[in-house]
Automatic annotation (TrEMBL):
Residues 1-20 form the signal peptide. Belongs to the FKBP-type PPIase family. Its EC number is 5.2.1.8. This is Peptidyl-prolyl cis-trans isomerase. It is an enzyme of class 5 (isomerase). It comes from the Bacteria. PANTHER family: 39 KDA FK506-BINDING NUCLEAR PROTEIN (PTHR43811:SF19), FKBP-TYPE PEPTIDYL-PROLYL CIS-TRANS ISOMERASE FKPA (PTHR43811). Coiled coil: none annotated. InterPro entries: PPIase_dom_sf, PPIase_FKBP_dom, PPIase_FKBP_N, PPIase_FKBP_N_sf. Keywords: Isomerase, Rotamase, Signal. GO terms for biological process: protein folding. GO terms for molecular function: peptidyl-prolyl cis-trans isomerase activity.
Length: 260
C-alpha cells in the first residue's frame, strides 16, 4: 500500500536522506581539501553559529520537507515531544505495536481521502473542460476534429505532414486551463524527438495535421490526453483538458531496426 507507507514512514525517509547526504563520498577533486573549509563556510550562516546548530537545522529542514504532504494532519509540538523522548531514552507514550496500528490506520485514512479527492477532481476537471471547449469552439480560427480535439493554425508550414509511425522533432509548451505551464522544451532550450505513436492520442492526431514548419495551438480534452488518472503526483489532474503550443520542426528518419 504505497500511500500508507509514504505517510507512515516520512520520518524514516527523511532520516535516510540525511544520512545518505552525509555519507556521500567526496569528489576526487575535493579529496585533499582541508576539512575545515566546509566548516568555515557553514559558520557564515546567520543565526547558526555552531556546527551542531547547522546540522540540527538541516535535519529539521529535511523533516519539514518530508512532512509537508501531511502538514495538516499532524501536530508539530507532539512530533517534537516524541523526538525528544525517543532521543533521551524516556518512557514513550506508545509501544511499537501501538505505533504500527496507528500507522496502518492513518495510511488507510489518507488513502481514502486521496480516492475521494481524485474522484471529485475528475468530475470538476471534466465539467470545466467541457465548458471551456464549448466556449473555445466559438472563437475565430479554432477548428475541431470528430474526436473532440481543437486546434488553431498559428503558422502553416510548407513541408510534408507526418504519419502515425514517424519520428518527429518538435518544440512545445504545455499548460493547464488556468495558464500554468507544466512542461516546455523552449525553457529547456532543446527540442524533443519522439515516435509519434508513443504520445497521447491528442498529440498523435494534432501533429499529423501539421505540415513541417507549422506552429499550432492544440486544446486536448482529458480523454485524448492523460485520461482519468492524470499524472499521479504530477501537475496534470484527472480528466484535465490541456493546452499546447506546438512547433513541428522536422520529420526525423527513424532508426533502422536490427535484423533478426
Amino acid at each position: 500500500m504505497k500511500l500508507s507507507m509514504r505517510h507512515a514512514l516520512v520520518l524514516t525517509a527523511a532520516t535516510a536522506a540525511i544520512f545518505a547526504a552525509g555519507c556521500k563520498a567526496p569528489d576526487k577533486t575535493d579529496a585533499n581539501a582541508p576539512a575545515a573549509a566546509s566548516t568555515a563556510k557553514g559558520a557564515q550562516i546567520a543565526g547558526l553559529p555552531t556546527e551542531k546548530d547547522r546540522v540540527s537545522y538541516m535535519v529539521g529542514m529535511a523533516l519539514g520537507k518530508q512532512l509537508e504532504p501531511i502538514k495538516d494532519e499532524v501536530d508539530f509540538d507532539v512530533i517534537a515531544k516524541a523526538v525528544k523522548s525517543t532521543l533521551k531514552g524516556d518512557k514513550l507514550l506508545m509501544t511499537d505495536d501501538q505505533a504500527r496500528e496507528v500507522s496502518e490506520a492513518f495510511g488507510e485514512k489518507m488513502q481514502q481521502k486521496a480516492v475521494v479527492k481524485a474522484e471529485a477532481d475528475a468530475k470538476n476537471n471534466l465539467d470545466a473542460g467541457k465548458k471551456f471547449l464549448a466556449d473555445n469552439a466559438k472563437k475565430p480560427g479554432v477548428q475541431a476534429t470528430a474526436s473532440g480535439l481543437q486546434y488553431q493554425v498559428v503558422t502553416e508550414g510548407k513541408g510534408p505532414k507526418p504519419k502515425a509511425g514517424d519520428v518527429v522533432r518538435v518544440h512545445y509548451k504545455g499548460a493547464t486551463l488556468d495558464g500554468k505551464t507544466f512542461d516546455s522544451s523552449y525553457e529547456r532550450g532543446q527540442p524533443v524527438v519522439f515516435p509519434l505513436d508513443q504520445v497521447v492520442p491528442g498529440w498523435q492526431e494534432g501533429i499529423q495535421l501539421m505540415p513541417v514548419g507549422s506552429k499550432f495551438k492544440l486544446w486536448i480534452p482529458g480523454n485524448l490526453g492523460y485520461g482519468e488518472k492524470g499524472t499521479p503526483g504530477g501537475p496534470i489532474g484527472p480528466n484535465a483538458t490541456l493546452v499546447f503550443d506546438v512547433e513541428l520542426l522536422d520529420i526525423v528518419q527513424a532508426p533502422e531496426q536490427p535484423k533478426q
